[in-house]
């Protein structure tokens, strides 16, 4: 297919993303810009020069990691041969819409920017595989358990802030419900489930909640037992986020105490996929999870 013909063809999935908010729009738009650039045989350096930027800026745009200036998108489309027609108008409209703040930005007073970025990616993802060693994954926490986790991390925060953080976590869980829910595959260390955070009754309710959630077809929970000894994820917890746009790389999310890392280089992604696959093998099979959780409830 010639570049000229490809530029006139409506891009796939352009209209499918708005339901997930501005981050999803940026991901979709970035993927389309990458496709158009590659079809023209242009490097990220050449594209960056056209918008008075760097190759790294083009990479961030194509991965949906930054907001878009309409002028930059217009200049790139001209460079890529998309000078008029419905495709150009659609992509420029996406650039304008993608700068609309997501619902989670209303919590910017209690959350750092680096975590707001993660929530946007979480809302846009179609599959998240996560490994946790200390806590139940946030998307699977009950309100009381979440409150205990928040208080542990912010012991001096006022009660109003605690409740806002808890409410945000509960709202995020909406991605697990509805007509097109997020698929979640969580591998959790047994230590996180044995630790009675919030007290025995809070933990019992949390474990019962996990049992209910694992009855959903799109949620998988595996437990890495103490008997597994050492395992592949010696470096700590991490998440792998996958998106509906096939041309977009998976993103590895690593959270630290006061910052986070986002990895999308193929070598990094492949390494973490291998570690996650190994963890899934080391963990107890998913069909045993209910029995393990019931045994933990009985011991509390």
Count of helical regions:
13
CATH architecture of the largest domain: 2-Layer Sandwich
Strand content: 5-15%
State the end-to-end CA separation: 64 Å
Q: Averaging pLDDT over every residue, what do you get?
A: 88
How many distinct domains? 2
What characteristic shape results from the CA principal axes?
Answer: elongated
Q: If strands are numbered along the chain, what order do they take across the biggest sheet?
A: 3-2-1-4-5-6
Write the element-wise H/E pattern from the N-terminal end onward: HHHHHHHEHHEHHEEEEHH
> How would you sum up the major sheet?
6 strands, mixed
User: What low-confidence regions span 5 or more consecutive residues with pLDDT below 50?
Assistant: 1-19
CATH class of the largest domain: Alpha Beta
For the CA atoms, what is the radius of gyration? Answer: 21 Å
Explain what you see.
By secondary structure, the protein is an alpha/beta fold. The chain folds into two domains: 3-97, lambda repressor-like DNA-binding domains (434 Repressor (Amino-terminal Domain)); 114-141 and 172-299, Endonuclease, Chain A (2-Layer Sandwich), CATH 3.30.870. The chain contains 13 helices and six strands. It has helices at 3-8, 22-39, 44-50, 55-62, 70-79, 86-97, 113-124, 143-153, 159-172, 190-194, 200-213, 266-282, 289-299, and strands at residues 125-132, 183-189, 219-224, 238-243, 251-255, 260-263. The longest helix has 18 residues, at 22-39. It is elongated. Mean pLDDT is 88; it is low at 1-19.
């Amino acid at each position: 297919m010639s570049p000229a013909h490809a530029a006139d063809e409506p891009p796939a999935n352009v209209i499918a993303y708005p339901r997930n908010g501005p981050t999803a729009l940026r991901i979709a738009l970035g993927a389309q810009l990458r496709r158009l650039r590659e079809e023209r045989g242009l490097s990220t350096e050449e594209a960056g020069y056209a918008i008075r930027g760097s190759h790294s800026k083009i990479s961030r745009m194509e991965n949906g990691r930054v907001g878009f200036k309409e002028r930059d998108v217009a200049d790139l489309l001209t460079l890529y041969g998309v000078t008029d027609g419905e495709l150009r108008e659609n992509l420029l409209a996406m650039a304008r819409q993608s700068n609309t703040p997501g619902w989670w930005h209303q919590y910017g007073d209690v959350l750092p920017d680096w975590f707001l970025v993660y929530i946007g990616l979480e809302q846009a993802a179609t599959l998240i595989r996560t490994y946790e060693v200390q806590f139940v994954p946030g998307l699977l926490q009950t309100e009381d358990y979440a409150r205990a986790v928040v208080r542990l991390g912010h012991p001096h925060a006022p009660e109003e802030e605690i409740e806002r953080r808890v409410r945000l976590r509960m709202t995020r869980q909406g991605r697990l419900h509805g007509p097109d829910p997020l698929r979640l595959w969580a591998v959790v260390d047994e230590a996180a489930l044995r630790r009675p955070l919030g007290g025995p009754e809070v933990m019992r309710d949390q474990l019962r909640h996990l049992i209910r959630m694992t009855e959903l077809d799109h949620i998988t929970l595996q437990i890495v037992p103490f008997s597994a000894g050492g395992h592949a994820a010696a470096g700590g917890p991490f998440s792998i986020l996958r998106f509906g746009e096939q041309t977009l790389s998976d993103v590895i999310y690593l959270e630290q105490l006061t910052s986070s890392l986002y990895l999308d280089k193929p070598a990094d992604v492949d390494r973490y996929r291998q570690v996650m696959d190994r963890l899934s093998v080391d963990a107890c099979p998913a069909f045993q999870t209910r029995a393990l959780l019931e045994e933990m409830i009985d011991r509390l």
